[in-house]
Structure formats: structure tokens, C-alpha cells
Amino acid sequence: MLRYTLQRIGLIFVTAFIILTLSFILMKLLPFERPVGLIDQLIAFYEKEVALGYFTRVDPSTPELAQVILTRGEIQYLYRQTPVISQYFTWLNNIVTRWDWGTSTAISLNVSAIEIIAQRLPFSMQLNFVALFTSVPFGFILGIWAALKKNKLTDHVISTSIMVFISIPSFVVISFLMGIFAYGLGWLPSQWPSSSADATTRTLAFVIPVAALSFGTIAGFARFTRAELTEIMSSEFLLLARTKGLTKAQAIIRHAMRNSLVPLVPGIIGQFIGILSGSIVLERLYGIPGIGGLFITAIQQKDYNVVMVDMAIYTLIGLFATLLVDLTYGIVDPRIRMGARK
Amino acid sequence: MANEKKTTISEKDFVFVQEKKTIVDVKLQTKPTTFFNDAMKRFVKNKASVIAASLIGFLVSLSVLVPIFNTNNIEAAASHQRFLPPRWAGFEDLGIADGTIVYKNIIVDYITNPEQPRPVGYDLSAVVGGSDGLDIYEDKINAASEYATGGMLNLRPDKRDRNGGIISPAVFLTRFSEFELTIDLPQEENVSHSVIPEYQLSLDVRYASSGTEYTRINLNDFNSEFGVIKVNNIMATIIDNAPEGFNINSIGAFSARFRISVKTAAEGAFPSLYIQSFEVLDVNNEENDATFNMNFYSGNELILRDLSTDTSNAWAFSGSAQKTVYQATLFRATFRYNPYQAVFGEKTRIIGETDLNRYIAEGYLTYDFNVGPSSLVLLRDDSPVREVLSQKIVTGPGGVSAREVTAVLSMYRFYGYDSMPYFFFGTNHIGHDYAKVVFSGLSTSLLLGLAGMLINVSFGMVWGSISGYFGGNIDLAMERFTEILGGVPWIVIMTLAILHLGNNFSTFLLAITLTGWIGMSSLTRSQFYRYKRREYVLASRTLGASDWRLIFRHILPNSIGPIVTSSVLLIPGIIFTEATISYLGLGLQGLPSLGVALSEAQNYLSTSPYLIGWGSVIISILMISFNLFGNGLRDAFNPSLKGVDQ
After folding, report:
1. pTM of the full predicted structure?
2. Does A124 reside within a domain?
């Protein structure tokens, strides 16, 4: 098991490495986006880039070689981008030796990309975890309820709503929630409040994004739980449990539920990835200062260093979550041995 | 056992069925059914899926027909008809979709014409019920407004090191009269706040007939006495405080400026002084209006002086302070408004000679510029010009003069409509018919979905078949490749494609298909693993069938069911991805899609919620229908899975 896990972790880093390498090279092949700012800031920026090895200074006698020419007072500063491949190795070297992922060129000039991400990561994680922990119990309860009342009115109502909520995109849900509860009734804030807002407003601000994120997830959990439980309810071991004299409640709680929850645990982790990518749109629409909204802003402002770090986070979370799903299969159900040979 | 039947069976009852006939192959009497026919039969029994399929069909036909038959222009901007609510033919009197919209809390102008209040920024003629249709209520605001009355002045120092106040413009006080100052500082407002203000009244007097040198005279000390405060004998005070050696007879009127100061607080909140009114009057001659323009009777009035173009009567700051209006009275109204009437009803407009000549040439009317308004004769009922009110000559730059008329125009005819137009979904932020925008977008999205699905399915099936059929090292290598490609988040692929190739239809298609085929290939691969070891395949192989034949005659036809189902579900997936990308602001450009239509409407959620409402309803119906349809297909192809996860 340990060997398998280590192998998988190794593979994750190889995959992430390949993905990030491709992304870096593809992104650096794009035309260089010049940062905008005061001359002192710009010179500081290019000097930093030179120190990091992405740019070289050009001798003022050969201005035709320079891509960037800055003039401060009498002195001219000339810079030129190094070739993409050498930039790539410098980038790799900087990350491995100094953990330096470069500085922002547009979002906030000369601030390190890691720092920008670190400021915003808590908001995204907070929101995603709240959404996850809200949707798990609701999803289970609805799914169990529907399965117990199979083919009755309750089941039909729940199943239909599951269908509807799985289908409706989360941005439609948030539009409706904002339209009704924020603009229409005025109960909830229509935008993510600033950190200076009072505690009530900040708590209320969670309602709309969490609801918009959870609806789809709740529906997903409920559908899965219902399917699992329905299958187990018709299994032989449950019949045996009833014949040996257990009441229906005992049989369901002790045997059916326990078994039906086994495949759901990995599902929870899988859903976390879903919530994470769903929240990109949401952060954008609700003005939440998280990494999802940042990713879009960075792409639009062509702040590639920030995009790279953001991309690395999303890629790594995605890959590790897949591993975690595979591993939990084995933990919750010892019959499943991941990576076992034929 | 009373009614027990006695059955007797004789030997005659036993007859050989085919005693005399030879047994040969008989042709089947019933028609043989195919895999797809069988599936179709089961599908038709599933009502929800059939309804979903017909809804999809309906939406698809709308997406084709609406852009063809709806003649409204969605290319050119038509800002005059922005944000019109939905208006349906036949619904004019039903109260919904009748083209009216309820506006709440709109400021009402009572100042211009108290007899006929009108909502500010709206056309009174388009308010349903006119002035009587306004549901007016009183509101208090803490800001200056030209439509507000009353209110106190809130005066507050804002620096720790100096007091703050205001100083009046200079007024001339005649030496031969006497003046009285009245200031109303409402008791309740001034003492009800945490910090009770201390104020001082003073006077700057110029003991000369010209110059800028003013002498300051304090009328009282800093104190906290509120209510209506009067200071008498202003002129006597001025004369008493005259500097030594000043010849009192040398001047007939003193230039003076009144000052109200509030003592600042060294720490904590700054105190606020609430002033209702300030007045200096000539006690001997009430008609003397020397101080009239300087006096103020409400906070709103005083702040408006600062905002107006003529600031000669405005009070300046003395020291460092802030002045705001406190509790001015304003009227607001809730009313039902008909924007169609406002945009397309009859309006008085000035139109030039050229325009009028064009209508004459088109045969709508005759008009003689030499005779004037009385010469208008309408030749056709549908003339855009209904009436000419007046005519005048204007001289433009360079001395060119032209004639223009003030005319009553029928605006919908003016904009080229035959009758008051109907917009089924209303109009968007640039005045385009939103129904046409949505359905044109839907056709783009469906096209993208269909094209993406075809590419994904064909590529994915080929990849999955090879990988699944041959297995071994080929499978291993191909799997690792898809694993890495599949590991890249879709947003990254999308972004890189858009950054490199720009955001047009083919880039989108490329970005969607770059990773989209992976799901299809892994499904095909697992199906191949399932069927390639079956006995019938082995039998065919031993008979010498080629790989090609095995794949296309035996394995693929058997594994096609789930592939068809997930192909159908690819379409809504692609539409959903496209809409998400558009929501993120990276969407298609120049080519309106459903996602673009929705994301544009998102910005006007608070003011025109019906736009996003309609768009969302359409995309939701589409998604639900596709999912139901897909479920129905799955059940039809594989009845054993029926109802497993609905």
C-alpha cells in the first residue's frame, strides 16, 4: 500500500511537471505583455527579471537588439527577453532552488505571485469547505429519504428535483438567488462585503455562494445515495437480516446504510473538485476575492506568473484528489486493492 | 367437493401435430426487430424522455426559425429602445407581459409644478394612470437634492487641531438701522447624540469702504445653548467694537460676514451641530433685503447653493469642517410605467427641413415652408409626422441658415415600425430584441455542441477502439498519454487556446475537442475490453476474420448503446462549458452564443431581471431535456439499468 501510494505520488509530480512545463512554454511563446506602472517601478521590475534570469541587459550601443527601452533622467535602460527554452530552465531552477515563482506584472506590480495567491487562497478554501460540509448531510438525507420511499410520491418529488438541480448550471442558480434574495427582497448582500463590514453582513454573504455551490452537489450526493441504497435494499443479506428477526429500522440502519455509504466517501472528495472548479464562475459573479476570480483576472490582464501559480494549484489539487479517491476506496472497502495485479 | 368437475380424457384427444407433414424451415411470421428498433420501442414508452425529446426538437426548431422570421435588427445598436420589458401580443390588459414595469422609490419632483408631480427621469405621459398613478410617500434623506425641501444643516469639524465652521458671504449692513440675528438650533437633535456640540457665533466686519481687512467680533462665547437663539443690536456691537480713531461717519454701510464655529474634539467622535435656519433681519425696515440672499432656512437650501452654478450666496468653510444635509424631506413614488409609451408614443421633436422633405418625397404629407405650420396636410394615415407646431430658422456656423420645425411625431413610425412593437423577451442593453439574441445564440451553441460532439465521438472512438482492441503495450502508452492530457484542467486548455488563437468559433471548437474526446475514448476502451473476449468474437476470429471485421461487425455494434447515450449527453456538456467560459468573460467574440447572451444580461440583473430570467429558463429547459433524453436512451439501450440512478 505504501509502495503504491509513493508510486502514485511520484507519478503525480511527473504529470504535474509535464503539464506545467507545457503550460509555461506555451504561455511564454505568447507575445510579452509589458507591465504598466511608474518608471521606477518598471525599472525595479526589469532588474528583478534580470536577476531572476528572464531578461538580459542590452548594451546601449546596440539599441536595435533591445525589446524594452526605458529612460530615466539621462540614463537609458535596455532589456531583452532571453530565449524561451533558457527562460524555462531558469524558471525551473528558480523554483527548485529559491521557491521563486516570479512577480506579478499587472495585478499588483512587483509583488511576488506566491504572496498574491496566499492572500486569496483562504477565501476560496473557506467557501469550498463550507459548501462541501453543507451539501454532504443534505444530500445524504434526501437520498436516503427517497430510497426508503421508493416509487412513492416523496421519491418522485425528490428524484425530479435532483434531476432539475443537476441540470441547471450553477451560474443560473446564483443569478436567481441574487435576483430574488439580494435585489428583490434585500435580505442578503448582493456582493461579497469588504473585510471592514460587520460580522452579520459577512456571515450573510456566505448564504448565496454556498447555496449556489451546494445545490448541484446536494443533488449529486442524493442521486448517488439513492441509487446505492436502492440497490442494497433489494440485496440478499438484507433479506437475511429481516428473516433472522431484525426490525426494518434495525436492518436499514445497521446493514443497508453502512454498506451504502462505502462508495460515497470517495464521492465526497470527487465532489470537492467539482465545487472548486464551479466556484471560479461564482467568485467572479459574486466578487469574492479568491483564487478562482484571480485566475480569470490574471488571464485577462495577461499576468502570466500569477496564472502559472494558480494553474499549478488547481492542477495539484486535482491530481491529489484523484489519488485520495483511489486510496480511500481501499481504506473504506478492503476488498478493493488499487494497483493490484491480475 | 360438491362442484368438483369430472374430466375424462379419451385417446382421441391426443393427436400428433405434425404427423403427416415433413418438418422444414418456416419463415418467421413476425418481422425481425433490429437492435435500434427494439431500443426505439422501449424509448417511446418512457413518457418523460419523449417529452424531453420533443422539447429539444422544439427549441432546435425555434433556434432555426426565430432568427429567420424575426426581422428585428440585432446588428446595429438601437439605444433608444434599451431595456424594454417583455410585451406580448394579446396580453395588453392582462397585467403580465404587457410591456409595463413597476418602478419603486423613484424621486418625485414637486418643485417644478406642485399641481402635477412627476417622477424624476421618467416621462409622466408614460406612467400608467398619469399623476394619479403615482403612489407617493414621504422620505427623509441626508443628502442635498434639488427635489428635496427642509432639512437641517449638519456642521462638523474634521480636524483635531482646529475648530470648524462656516462663514457667510459678505453683506452690507447700513449704519442707520439695527439688525437682529436669529439662529434655530433644534434642542432635540443637538443633545441626542453622544457628543454635545459647543458653538460660537461671530462676525467679521470691515471698517473701511474697500479692502480685504476684516475685524473679528465674537457675538457670544463657545456654549451649548440650543433652541431659537436671538442676538440683538448687531449694529450697536459693530459700532462699539470700532477700532480707535475710526471715523464712524466716514462709512454708510459695513461689509460684514457672519460665522458659525463648532469646537472640535481632541479625541473620540467629532461633534455635530444641527442648524435649522439662520437669519439676519433689519428690525427697522423689514423690506430691506440686504441680508436676504445670505440667510438660509433649511440645510438642503444651503448645500444646493454650493452645487449651483452661481455660488455667490454660498457659505464658505471657516477652519476645517464638513457640512451635510440632515433629514431633508423628499417625496418618492412607486408606479407602473409603460416604457413602450415613453419610447414609441407621440413625442414633440424638432426635425430639420431635410427630414421633412424626405417625408414629403415619400408621399406621407405635404407642407409649404413659406406658409408655415398651417399648411400641413397628412396624405397617409401612417405618416410619422402627426402635427407641426411651429417653424423657425436657425443659423449654423458659417452663417448657413436652415429651417426646422417643431413637430409631434409618432415615434414607432419614426423608427420604422408599422405598429407599437412587441418584444417577446424584451430588449437588452443595446436595444436588441432579446428573443432573437437568445435564439440566435442557441443556434450557435447547438451548432458548437453538435460539431464538438461529432469530433469528440469520432476521435474518441477510434482512439478507444485501438487502445481497447490491441491492449498490451499499445494500450499502456495510449493510456498514459490520455492521463496526462486529461490531467490538465479544462480551464487551462481553454485559456491557452484562447490566448494563442483568439476567441472565435473554431478556437472554441478546438479547445473543447482537445480534451473532450478522452471521456469517449475511455468509454469505448472499456466496452472493447468487455466484448473482445466473448465467444462469438473468438468464433469469428477462428474463422479467419480480419481485425477490421471483428471491430466493425462484432464488437462495435454490441457496445454501441452506452456510446450513443454518452454522445447525446456530450452536447449539453459542451453548451454548459461554453456558457461557463462566456460567464468568465473569455467568451466568443463577434458570434453571439447563448452563454454570451446570458453573461451580458447578468450585468443588468438588478434593473432588468427579466432578461437573465428568460435566458436562464431557456438554458435550464435545454439542460433538463437533454439529461432526461439521455436517461431515456440509456434505459432503452440497456433495460437492465432502468431506474438505477434517475
Report:
1. 0.78
2. yes
